[in-house]
């Protein structure tokens, strides 16, 4: 008899777990709210050029429309890709200049819009010291992390749904009070850098609205070199993994193999597959934190992917002169790869309605001259931004007309769903669930103890 009761109790102990598994989705709807986060992703191959410290990048960051909650900015060739740079000590001076420009732009300290844009002037001597900037930003980040005010994400703005957690509501004003949706839309939020990482010429920098910083957890980075000898970082990726509230984000900045010969696209495909295979984020103590790229829920891939057009130089220029972007895009290598569903299975790109981003003469609005066949390059959309996974809605996909390098920068703006746990509702859901489980246990126990009648 004692053994029978003990067996019944052991079986009963597993009932709450089974009930929670069976009703996990119902429970989540009770305590999880879904909001939208505005994410601005940008990529730019800057051709190894250190910019003037007053470079105007507002167009690239798409600030004139509406400030984002997160800025994910990827660079390629942030330093010249010369042998000395690839195998020697990493040169971080250009990184400091670029981060200074980003910081000033996002925190509304950029030059007056009435002043002429400066794309190629040399920085004035003694005006900006990169080392001073690095120290200043580190101090600022430390101070800001200790004084963050509460902030809210945008309410989900999506197609109507019966799920109360996904109801359609207008965006809420952000609690920090520096941006008013009903007032002056040019007021800017205050931003902090949460992580930056350089691998030779590949550089990724992530900035967030200051009040959201405390909601970021599990911040990790992974680098993969696929360049010279298969591992040097002149080509490869820098990836960032982070958890915003309860949603896992991954941002991957790439610079893939170049070349416009037949079959060169296969090298690029191999680069992507190698990056997927070798990108691993160090495990943390929290259970369920992703370690691979595709373990994440919201994934963005950006960079100089280097895919070309399967067209002749002459035909490409003819279609560009007609602004026949659809005609060009039909022959785009990456479009074909996305359609195959192999290397890029599940990845999505927005419609391209802008001219090819490569290859321009430096500091010029003209594509490279065709004076010599050996030196000319057929224009192509080398610079791309892709997304993977549900819960991401593309708002815009454009290029900016900055003429610093031989590439044009590209920007994609998304609204990304973010799950937020409401502690009070969670406690209430668990209380009700436990009560239901106890009732179920009691009824099962009574059924077992009732005498059987013949």
TrEMBL record:
Residues 35-422 form the Inositol polyphosphate-related phosphatase domain. Residues 143-164 are annotated as: Disordered. The keyword Cell membrane does not apply. Pfam families: Exo_endo_phos2 (PF22669). One of its GO terms (molecular function) is phosphatidylinositol-3,4,5-trisphosphate 5-phosphatase activity. Keywords: Hydrolase. One of its GO terms (biological process) is phosphatidylinositol dephosphorylation. The keyword Hydrolase applies. It comes from the Eukaryota. PANTHER family: INOSITOL POLYPHOSPHATE-RELATED PHOSPHATASE DOMAIN-CONTAINING PROTEIN, TYPE IV INOSITOL POLYPHOSPHATE 5-PHOSPHATASE 9. Belongs to the inositol polyphosphate 5-phosphatase family. This is Inositol polyphosphate-related phosphatase domain-containing protein. It comes from Zea mays. The gene is LOC103630656.
């Amino acid at each position: 008899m004692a053994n029978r009761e003990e067996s019944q109790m052991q079986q009963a102990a597993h009932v709450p777990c089974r009930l929670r598994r069976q009703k996990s989705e119902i429970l989540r709807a009770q305590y999880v709210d879904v909001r939208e986060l505005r994410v601005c992703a940008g990529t730019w191959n800057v051709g190894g050029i250190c910019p003037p410290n007053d470079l105007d990048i507002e167009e690239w960051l798409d600030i004139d429309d509406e400030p984002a909650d997160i800025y994910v900015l990827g660079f390629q060739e942030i330093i010249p890709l010369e042998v000395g740079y690839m195998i020697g000590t990493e040169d971080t001076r250009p990184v400091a200049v670029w981060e200074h420009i980003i910081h000033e732009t996002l925190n509304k300290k950029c030059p007056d819009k009435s002043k002429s844009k400066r794309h190629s002037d040399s920085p004035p001597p003694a005006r900006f010291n990169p080392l001073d900037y690095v120290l200043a930003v580190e101090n600022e980040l430390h101070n800001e992390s200790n004084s963050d005010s509460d902030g809210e994400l945008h309410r989900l703005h999506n197609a109507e749904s019966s799920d109360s957690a996904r109801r359609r509501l207008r965006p809420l004003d952000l609690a920090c009070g520096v941006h008013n949706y009903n007032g002056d839309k040019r007021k800017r939020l205050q931003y902090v850098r949460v992580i930056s990482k350089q691998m030779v010429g590949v550089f990724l920098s992530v900035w967030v609205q200051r009040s959201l910083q405390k909601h970021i957890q599990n911040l990790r980075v992974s680098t993969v070199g696929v360049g010279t000898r298969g591992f040097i970082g002149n080509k490869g990726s820098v990836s960032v993994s982070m958890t915003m509230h309860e949603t896992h984000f991954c941002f991957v900045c790439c610079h893939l193999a170049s070349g416009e010969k037949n079959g060169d696209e296969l090298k690029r495909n191999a680069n992507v597959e190698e990056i997927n295979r070798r990108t691993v984020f160090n495990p943390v103590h929290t259970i369920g934190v992703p370690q691979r790229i595709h373990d994440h829920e919201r994934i963005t891939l950006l960079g100089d992917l280097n895919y070309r057009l399967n067209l002749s130089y002459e035909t490409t220029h003819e279609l560009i002169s007609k602004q026949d972007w659809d005609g060009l895009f039909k022959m785009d290598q990456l479009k074909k790869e996305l359609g195959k569903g192999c290397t890029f299975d599940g990845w999505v790109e927005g419609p391209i309605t802008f001219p090819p981003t490569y290859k321009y003469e430096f500091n010029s609005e003209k594509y490279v001259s065709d004076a010599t066949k050996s030196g000319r390059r057929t224009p192509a959309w080398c610079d791309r931004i892709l997304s993977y996974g549900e819960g991401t809605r593309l708002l815009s996909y454009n290029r900016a007309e900055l003429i610093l390098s031989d590439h044009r920068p590209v920007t994609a703006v998304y609204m990304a769903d973010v799950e937020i746990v409401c502690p009070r509702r969670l406690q209430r859901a668990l209380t009700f669930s436990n009560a239901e489980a106890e009732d179920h246990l009691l009824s099962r126990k009574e059924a077992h103890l009732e005498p059987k009648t013949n």
